[in-house]
Structures are given as structure tokens and as C-alpha cells.
Amino acid sequence: MSVLDPRHVWGDFAKQKTFFRESDNSGADHYNTYASFIKDSKTDSSLKKFVYHEPFTFIPSYGSSVTIEFQNNELEYGNKYRTAEPALFNRIAVSFELNFSDRSDDQAKAITDFLERKQSSVFVMQPRSYDEVGEEKFKSLYSLDPYFLQEFRCFQYSLNEEYVDQNSITANFANQDFSELTLKYLLYSNSMSEKRKEIFEEYFYKDRLDILPSYTVSTDASFHAVNYSLGKSRSEFGPDGIYSKTDNIILNYENLTDLDAYKIICLVAGKYGFETFKFTTQKPDLRTLNFRCASIRHEFVYKDTNNIQLNLTEEKIKKFLK
Amino acid sequence: MAYIEYQECEVEIGGQNVLAKSAAITTSANVKANRVYGGKFRKGQKYSATSFPTATLDLNYYIMENHDHIEQMTGQKYANGSFCGINFSGAALTNYSVNIQPYKVIEYKATFMLYSGLDQRSLGAEPVEDPSVGTDLFYEKFANGAYTELVNFNRQNIGIDFPSSISYQVTCERIPKYVIGDEYPESVALGRVNRRLSVEGENIGSLITFSGKDFATVEISPRSIDGVSRGQTVTCDGIIKDQNLAVSSEGVLAGSINIEQSLR
Fold this sequence. Notes:
The complex is a heterodimer of chains A (322) and B (264). By secondary structure, chain A is of the alpha+beta class. In chain A, the strands form 3 sheets. In chain A, strands 1, 4, 5, 6, 7, 8, 11, 12, 13 and 14 form a 10-stranded antiparallel beta sheet that branches. A two-stranded antiparallel ribbon of chain A has the order 2-3. In chain A, strands 9-10 form a two-stranded antiparallel sheet. Chain A is globular and about 75 Å long. Chain A is built from 6 helices and 14 strands. By secondary structure, chain B is an all-beta fold. Chain B has one domain (10-27, 52-262). In chain B, strands 1-2-5-8-7-6 form a 6-stranded antiparallel β-barrel. Classes of the chains: A alpha+beta (322), B mainly beta (264). The interface between A and B is medium-sized, with 32 and 28 residues.
């Protein structure tokens, strides 16, 4: 059994990049090293060639989803002003909940064999290689459009044998490498289309969520109060600071096009879970408030049809660090 | 308004033509209106597809040859075809049935799911006139219920001596595999396949006691009025699933029996 030696942990992590072999990527038209590939592939305006060793090439089925979670510490200041701050450095967890529905015995075996071979080690998910994507080479950097994220670990999968030659697999692919410094490259590559770049530049830095969600919009308001009790008396409650109420809103966006989904993901991801953006609630409680969003859930419903769910928490004061 | 009249309804499927009594292609899109917060519709995207569209081809037809090629499509076989100026592909048979009644032309029905979309060739195309395919002229070519050979349809085997109508049906489960980014399925797998035979008749024997019991193979060999085979012999070898006895005032005792066979 191999165990990571804490004295050489970063060296051991580097050794796990077995999916990128320098011998497969020689020549001036390739990224020759993993360091060059991981850094330059997102910033080069013209993507060079790259070849992975044993990528996961199976395309998931509709109903699969992606969750981006920002790990925060909740802080409480005087007057009950509550806010969030980053809990860790690499604190942005990206999780793919993937369905592989109605797969033949051969394909189900190929998927499960791959996952068992990799177990918890890092592998890459690349449905279409550089040579398979045609003119739009940036698409070879996708695991799933619009995510330029290909390195994952898989800790569990489930196989359901539904009938002869008919199987369904669910698997969780996890990545926790992103921080505020790198999150941009989850959604951006300099070689992607100009239209996508324009959307990214507009929405990643935008401070107002102006794409309206679908019904139902749910708001939970919680009141903060202090309680007093003396001896055996019943409790008495009183106002607790000037920020005595917090609104939590769940926004569901149903059946968005790929581009609209990309806009919302860019806007929310660009706030890293602790910066705020404005959102205007409708009647009967018409207000424009500052919110932060600690998680994004994106479901692939059908071709060019996506659902997104955002969990917003009201912030009393605008937070914008840039 | 222009009308297109069809004397004969010829449908091409699987590379062969079928003389259909009626044929219909039905498509259905799964769409949803995008109403957004505030009551308006989403700008530039009032409707969205929420899952794949479905298309079916329904055929009612007669057999004029001694071989029905559609009956051979109950397995992993998919067909292309066309009718009324519309080309279709990826047609997978989901339901095939034969209905037999005394002294009537035996009618065949088939339902296909179309998994690869439609291509409108030329709506409004003139039908091809072929005077040699007159229904009356060729009546003797069709399979006829009066001359159809039935094997093991008796009181000892199924509890009915005189069947008044027989319906034979094969259902094939089709499982399309969709992956992210695709509008049409990447592949379609064959799932469960079942046969069902429904017999209505008179001179009922100890019918009700048969429920759940295996029975000997029954065979139906459709023939034309001149005794020539029309279509393949269809067989069913399963269990008696349910039975029914009914009588009405001034009527006769009649019964029905449903037999099922799981093939796959």
C-alpha cells in the first residue's frame, strides 16, 4: 500500500500527473511539459497540441450536474453584522455528479474498469481530444462545456444493471484545486471564441445579477434575537443589534441556453462566494439587496437547455475586493 | 387550400414498399414556456426543449407476399424509409400486431419510433399512380381470416373451440442512449420483448381454470382465399395471463383469453 509521505507531499502530488507524459508531447508544436501545459494552455491565444495518457473519454448523459462550492467561515461582528471570509486557500470545490445512463455491458465495463484502475488518484476527463474537435481547439480543454477543468479524482461510483446489456452508472468526480487566483481559468481560456470571451469579461466582473430566474423564488427570513432568563423565569427576547434580519433566497433558473447559463455561472463564480452582487426582488417585497452566493448547481437538462440553482445570502454591506 | 388525395398509400420502409391502409407520422416536442420572475417571458427564449422530441410512424397494412419483412424488425434492426414526401431514418419497431377475424382481410399494424429525425423531401408531392395496385383487383392476394390456418386453437388447449377474433401483438422496448450535447440518441438498445395473443370466441370450455398455466404452442398461418401463405407463421408459447367470460340478455356466452410470452 502506498501512503503519501507528508515530508514529500508536493513531490508526490507531482508524480501523480501520470496522465501527461512528456514523451507523448515532444516537438515545438506541443506543450512539452506539464508545467508549460497547465500554465500556457489557458493563456495562449492559439492552443498548441497536447496529448493525454489514458484520459476518461466517456460522455455523460443528460441529468448530470456540476456543483461549485465556496468554503467560507461565517463571521459575526458587533451589532450582529454577519459576513463570510475564505476558509482555506484552495477552498473552491468543484464536483461533477455524472450519470452514464443506458450503457451497454461493454461500455459500462470500460467505465468501471477505468475508475477502478484510477481509484482515488488523479485522472483527466477529456471527451474529445485535440485532433477530434475540429477548428475550435479550445474545446479539447473541456471536460463538459463550459468547464475548462479536466483533472479529477473519483471516490465512489454506483452501477445499476437494469437489464441485459443495459446499465446505468453514477459517479462523483471531484476537484478541489481552485482558489481565487485560479478560478478564472475554470471558465476562461484565451483561445476560446471571441463571443465567449466578451461574455466572460462582462459577467465575471459584473456586480448585478440582472438575468431573471424562473418561478418559484423562495425567501426565508430569519430574525436574530437575544434571550434573557433569570433564575427560573421564562425567557425574554429582545432585539439583537441593528442587523436583526437576514434573507436567504433560492433562485432557480430553468431551461437556460448554454450562453445564458455561462453568463450566470461567470457572474456568480466571479464573486468567489464572499463578494457581493446586487439582485432585485419583485413584488410584494420589491427591494434591491446585496447577496453572496456560496454554491452554484448546474444541471445539463438537454441540448442547449440547462438548469441552475443559486443559494443567496443577504449581505448588509457591499463587498467588492477588486 | 390544396388537397392531396392518395388512392393507395405506399410506404417505403427497410428498402421495401408496403401497401398501407393508413399511415401516420406523429412528432411531439417536449417544450416548456420560460416564464420568469415578474411574469414576463425570458427575453429571446420564450420556449425551451426540456427533453428529446419523439416521432412515431404508425402503419396499418395488408400483406400481399408470403413474407412480411416488418415482422423481422422486432430485434436489433433499424430501418430507413419514406412516405408522403418525408424521409425518416432510425426507425425502430416498438409494436407489431396482427388482427384476424373470420371472412375479413387480415390487418397488420406496426408502430415505429423514429430516432434520427425527419427530412422533408417535398410535402405536396404527387402520389405515384400505379393502376396495377387496385385493392379490389388484388383482393385474393391478401391474407384472409377465413382461410387462415390455426394450430392448437381448441378447447383442450386454450378453452375455446371457435375463435371469433384473434389479435397477436409483439412489443419491443427500445432504450435510446443520449449523451450531453447531442440532440438525437447516440444509439438505441433493445430491451424487453413480449408477445401477447388475445383470442375471443364461443363454445367456451373449462376456461377459467387455466389461469397461470402453460399451454402448448399455438400457431397462426395467414393465407389468402386461394390458400397461398401471406406473411410468416406467427407462434405464441406462453402462459394464460387473464380470461373473461361474458353473457348478455338474448346473447350467447362469449369469452376471451389473453396469453403472454416473454421472449427477452
